[in-house]
């Protein structure tokens, strides 16, 4: 901008100033211009997925002289840009199947395939070319031990002699818990009942009574009493002495009368008056003859004249109800501890495993079995009923061990800005690693937006 003024610096009409002295322009920026000269863009750095295109750049002046790069505007030097191709082939796999077995060791499987950008199946080798190992199509699985039948010890025979049956508990065990029997195999179930055969039963056998030993007065009848086992006669103590039949009994015939019309007994004469005064008198019972089992108690029984107190022969009391002088007694049954065979150990290996056997208190005389309980036997003599099984330790279960994923270095980002990709190798050091823990092979990078170049001007100097 130019204005015309006088010597006092006041503005005056421009016509008063010489026209040839007016100058509103002057030369500036006389130094040569500098700029970037770019080469052609290269092809994309990848054949699939995201990559970059590159080109060369040189800083020159307007005369074509090559200058150092720092003499040109660095923001204008764009030598890379992102490029995108069709999606790379990638592995595709289904969910794992259920375990091939319901117990013990088995396998889980899945289908592994390689698909292209159209999601069409292609050869697995195509995916493998991109540096990714083929994911496993099967892996081991273990659902624990199988259910099995466990047996308890056999109970006693249902009968004390002869034939009977015995029972035991058979239960299905799975993971150390008793479960419903349907869980175990019915075909493998052990018997819970079987026949048992003990010694033959015994019984008393009697013959017919003999005729009375007298024709008048008091006499005796007798018969044979035998203890029979099977078809053989055995000792009395093998039968129940408490139920032993009598082998003799009294028999009474008509009274014997002499010529004087007096009653006659065993060659002596007794008056009817004395018989009417006779009465049985008896003392206390003695202690039982045995401390256990069948014994005998006795007492004194006397026929006595109730008028003068004299003892009479027993014949005077014959018309009275008889008073026994002897009776059977039993303080308690004779019993002892009986043991059964040891039950088999429930497993074939392990520690702190025990086996048991049945210990019962049983009467020595089988007929008295219903009278016996455990208090009848001596508790200090109780046999051992539980002991530790002599087993070897179970072999340790081989646990499945997994390897470790190893990662390589990331490749350079495929784009300097606007979001690119980088890749790294991921391998398993043992060939068996957990797929769910596999690190990423691809990763986004340089996500910041790309800047477009804009000329900016400084004020005129």
From TrEMBL:
Q: Which InterPro entries match?
A: ADAMTS_ADAMTS-like, TSP1_rpt, TSP1_rpt_sf
Return any one Pfam family short name. Answer: TSP1_ADAMTS
Q: Which GO terms describe its biological process?
A: anatomical structure morphogenesis
Q: Which residues form a coiled coil?
A: none
Gene Ontology cellular component annotations, sorted alphabetically: extracellular region
Name the UniProt key words of this record, in alphabetical order: Repeat, Secreted, Signal
Q: Does the keyword Cell membrane apply?
A: no
Q: Answer yes or no on keyword Secreted.
A: yes
Where is this chain's protein located in or outside the cell?
Answer: Secreted
Q: What protein am I looking at?
A: ADAMTS-like protein 1
Q: What taxonomic lineage is listed for the species of origin?
A: Eukaryota, Metazoa, Ecdysozoa, Nematoda, Chromadorea
């Amino acid at each position: 901008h130019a204005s015309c003024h006088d010597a006092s610096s006041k503005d005056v009409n421009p016509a008063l100033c010489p026209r040839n002295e007016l100058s509103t322009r002057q030369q500036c920026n006389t130094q040569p211009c500098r700029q970037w000269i770019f080469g052609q863009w290269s092809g994309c750095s990848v054949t699939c997925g995201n990559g970059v295109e590159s080109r060369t750049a040189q800083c020159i002046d307007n005369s074509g002289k090559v200058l150092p790069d720092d003499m040109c505007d660095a923001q204008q030097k764009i030598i890379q840009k992102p490029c995108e191709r069709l999606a790379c082939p990638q592995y595709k796999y289904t969910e794992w199947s259920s375990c091939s077995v319901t117990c013990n060791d088995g396998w889980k499987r899945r289908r592994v395939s390689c698909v292209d950008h159209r999601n069409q199946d292609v050869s697995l080798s195509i995916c493998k070319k991109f540096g990714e190992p083929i994911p496993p199509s099967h892996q081991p699985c273990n659902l624990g031990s199988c259910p099995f039948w466990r047996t308890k010890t056999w109970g006693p025979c249902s009968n004390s002699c002869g034939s009977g049956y015995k029972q035991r508990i058979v239960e299905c065990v799975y993971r150390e818990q008793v479960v419903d029997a349907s869980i175990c195999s019915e075909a493998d179930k052990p018997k819970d009942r079987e026949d048992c055969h003990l010694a033959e039963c015994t019984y008393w056998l009697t013959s017919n009574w003999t005729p009375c030993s007298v024709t008048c007065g008091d006499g005796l009848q007798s018969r044979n009493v035998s203890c029979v086992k099977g078809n053989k006669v055995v000792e009395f103590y093998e039968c129940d002495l408490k139920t032993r039949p009598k082998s003799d009994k009294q028999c009474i015939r008509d009274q014997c009368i002499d010529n004087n019309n007096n009653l006659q007994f065993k060659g002596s004469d007794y008056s009817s008056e004395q018989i009417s005064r006779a009465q049985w008198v008896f003392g206390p019972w003695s202690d039982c003859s045995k401390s256990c089992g069948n014994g005998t108690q006795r007492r004194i029984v006397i026929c006595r004249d109730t008028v003068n107190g004299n003892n009479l022969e027993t014949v005077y009391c014959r018309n009275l109800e008889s008073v026994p002088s002897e009776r059977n007694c039993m303080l308690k049954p004779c019993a002892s501890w009986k043991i059964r065979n040891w039950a088999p150990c429930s497993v074939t290996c392990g520690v702190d495993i025990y086996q048991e056997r049945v210990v019962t208190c049983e009467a020595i005389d089988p007929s008295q079995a219903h009278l016996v309980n455990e208090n009848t036997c001596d508790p200090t003599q109780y046999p051992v009923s539980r002991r530790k099984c002599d087993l070897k330790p179970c072999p340790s279960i081989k646990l499945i061990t997994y390897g470790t994923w190893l990662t390589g270095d990331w490749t350079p980002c495929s784009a300097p800005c606007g979001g690119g990709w980088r890749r790294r190798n991921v391998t398993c050091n043992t060939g068996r690693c957990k797929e769910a823990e596999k690190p990423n092979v691809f990763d986004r990078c340089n996500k910041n937006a790309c800047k477009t170049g804009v000329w900016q001007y400084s004020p005129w100097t």
